[in-house]
Structure formats: structure tokens, C-alpha cells
Amino acid sequence: MINIELQKGDITKVKVDAIVNAANSSLMGGGGVDGAIHRAGGNTILEECIQIRNRKGGCKAGEAVITGAGNLPAKFVIHTVGPVWSGGQANEPEKLAGCYRNSLLLAVDNKLKTIAFPNVSTGIYGYPKKEAAQIAIHTIKNSIITEIDSVIFVCYDEENYRIYKELLNDI
Ligand code: AR6
């Protein structure tokens, strides 16, 4: 089973094999955690994203791609695209679970052992925080992947931190 940890703070400061970015389909950067990662990591991350975009035309909701991490303490950045919340009837839960599952699979492909996730979709994309946390925890906890040692959920806002703390205490 993958070991699960919880941290409060800024994911750009976390030293793991890969941090996950809550990107958008264009992979061209944006606000929130995406903006923070590109700012702190420097231009090489965007350059690699542009190459991926030229090769495969961006990234769909639920999918993930990987780049180096530039100046960040992490070794890689896995860019996943969360669903925009539009009421829950547009496959948002499946897409959000796909973000976590596909990020883990990409980490395995790249022989990475430790991975840190932000609370994908719960900022600008408006996904209800508790439901998003349940999906994130369930997907990691029930993963049959054995190659990953540990996942850190990095919560930036107090509300997400409190929700994760409660849910993780229950398991
Ligand atoms: N470290 C960790 N978590 C953070 C940080 C940080 N430095 N900054 C914000 N968060 P959001 P989304 C948390 O909006 O909802 C971008 O423009 C934040 O508190 O970053 O998936 C993209 O380009 C929230 O809980 O991502 C897309 O267009 C969580 O990160 C769009 O936003 C996710 O919030 C994606 O929206």
C-alpha cells in the first residue's frame, strides 16, 4: 500500500521525486498552483510544455504529462488537468480520479517513488473541496500500484487541510 502523508503549505517547496501541477489543457501556465510552479521553476518547464503541446496538442481533463522541474527542489513536474466543476453531471468525479491515477502511472513509468499532489480542481475550477478530497484519498488508497513509496497531499488553504486531516484520520 502507498504510504499517505499530509502537509500544509506551498508545493513548490517540497522535495520529492515529482510534484503534481493542477494545469489547464493548454499547458501554457495560468494562475493558482500552476502559476506558482512556473514562477518558481523557471522557463524550462514552459519550454518543455510547449514541446509536449506541439507533439500531442495539450492535455485533456483527467490526463497527465511530465516535464523536468527546472529550479524546483523536486526532480519532475507532472502536469495534470482537473475537470472544471459544472454541477457533477459531466463526469467530473471520473475525470478527477483519472488525474490522480494517471499521475501515479506516469510516476511509475519514470521510476519515481515519492510524489506530492495539490488539491486538483478545488481552486479556480470550483470542485467542492470535500468531494474532491474523498476522490483523491480513495484513488491513492485503493491503488494497486506497488512501485510508489509515498504520496504527500500538500494543502495550501486551511479548509482543504482540515478536510484532509479529518478524512485521513478516519481511515
Ligand atoms: N502550493 C500548493 N497548493 C496551492 C498553491 C501552492 N503554491 N497555490 C494554490 N494552491 P488552482 P484548479 C491550491 O486554482 O482549481 C490555473 O489557472 C489552491 O488552494 O491552482 O485545478 C490553471 O492554469 C487549491 O486548493 O487549480 C488552470 O487554468 C488548489 O491548489 C486552473 O487554474 C488548486 O487550485 C486550474 O484550476
Features:
six-stranded mixed sheet, 171 residues, Leucine Aminopeptidase, subunit E, domain 1, 5 helices, 6 strands, single chain, binds ligand AR6, alpha/beta
Structure description:
This protein is α/β, with parallel strands linked by helices. It has a single domain (3-165), classed as 3-Layer(aba) Sandwich (Leucine Aminopeptidase, subunit E, domain 1). 39% of the residues lie in helices and 19% in strands. It is built from five helices and six strands. It has helices spanning 32-41, 43-56, 92-109, 129-141, 158-169, and strands spanning 3-8, 18-23, 64-68, 76-81, 114-117, 150-155. The protein has a six-stranded mixed β-sheet with strand order 1-6-5-2-4-3, sandwiched between helices. Strand 3 and strand 4 (76-81) form a beta hairpin. The longest helix has 18 residues, at 92-109. The chain binds ligand AR6. Ligand AR6 binds next to strand 2 and helix 1.
